[in-house]
Design brief:
alpha/beta, Rossmann fold, 12 helices, 9 strands, 44% helix, S-adenosyl-L-methionine, Leucine carboxyl methyltransferase 1, SAM-dependent_MTases_sf, LCMT1
């Protein structure tokens, strides 16, 4: 593990802080994020709206995937950090056959400890069908698995997914949120091609930077470098087209990509009004600038005719 890897892991704390700050101010409900982070610094409204748009759109796609497959599916969150989606889906009675989270051992160790200490988290993993297996860095239950792996090492990743009893023939959706951009292109290409080859009926949700060649993108890169964090995969983040091309050249048949500006515009008028009234919000230009530098990818390959192409990223109401 390199020093850069350590810095990248700290971005998980940043994301958790931003999410908790937004949840505390009513942008969305999440009963579990406070277990993973405490006393966040208050964030600006445009940051909170940006995180709302990210969380809402990713979970919308996951819910549609679960409904389309009638729950007979798997979810794999790569670089999951302190994500709480599993518990929130449980509350909505939308549980896949298996939910797998993968991250560096230092991150999964902290998440394991928190889950063990919080009954509100642990009890939702319990099942009459299976005992929960707990270690310092990993958890295995009937439908939830938390494992440690470096996703750049495909043999290691495959072995860990096999330990979760993953079924490559079952419809599977993979999630990466601001993860691929930290990988050298050879690693992200290899990962995307491996998944598209190994899982014939699969989907991929990717949230990360886009339009990174302008001044805003340059400043973001400089600021991250000051924190010893390098966007090694920024080449794929130059435009919507470069994002789409990366997936297509690695075997994904149906690929959509939207700037988050357009994702936000596709929310209902009433929801946008609710969000913009939660706090004093005068910086619409700043929100637009932020959202246009992130994008949402939805790619799928549907060999078993589950009609995944019916799921689109143009409607998040």
């Amino acid at each position: 593990m390199s020093f850069n890897d350590d810095a990248v892991q700290l971005t998980n704390d940043d994301a958790s802080s931003c999410k908790l700050s937004a949840v505390q101010r009513g942008y969305w409900k999440d009963s579990y994020i406070s277990f993973f982070y405490e006393n966040p610094e208050r964030k600006s409204p445009e940051i909170s709206i940006g995180y709302y748009t990210r969380v809402h759109s990713v979970r919308y796609l996951l819910k549609e995937f679960i409904k389309k497959t009638e729950g007979n599916c798997q979810i794999v969150n790569l670089g999951a950090g302190y994500d709480t989606t599993y518990w929130n889906l449980k509350d909505d009675s939308l549980t896949p056959k298996s939910f797998i989270e993968v991250d560096f051992p230092a991150v999964t160790m902290k998440k394991c400890r928190i889950i063990k200490e919080q009954m509100d988290l642990l009890e939702k993993l319990q099942s009459e069908e299976d005992d929960i297996q707990l270690s310092r860095t990993e958890i295995h239950s009937n439908d939830y698995h938390l494992v440690s792996a470096d996703i750049r090492e495909l043999k290691q990743l495959e072995a860990k997914l096999q330990s979760c009893r993953i079924d490559t023939n079952l419809p599977t959706v993979f999630i990466t949120e601001c993860v691929l951009v930290y990988l050298d292109m050879e690693y992200s290409d290899r990962l995307l091609k491996w998944i598209s080859t190994k899982f014939p009926t699969s989907a991929f949700i990717n949230y990360e930077q886009v339009n990174m060649e302008d001044r805003f993108g340059e400043v973001m890169i400089v600021n991250l470098k000051r924190r010893n964090t390098e966007l090694r995969g920024v080449e794929a983040c130059q435009s919507v087209d470069t994002q789409i091309n990366r997936f297509k050249r690695n075997g994904w048949k149906n690929v959509e990509c939207l700037e988050m500006t357009n994702v936000y515009r596709n929310l209902s008028t009433s929801e946008k009004q609710r969000l913009e009234k939660l706090e004093r919000f005068d910086e619409k230009d700043l929100l637009d600038q932020l959202l246009e530098h992130y994008c949402l990818m939805w790619a799928n390959s549907d060999s078993n005719s589950v009609n995944l192409s019916d799921v689109t990223i143009t409607d998040f109401t």
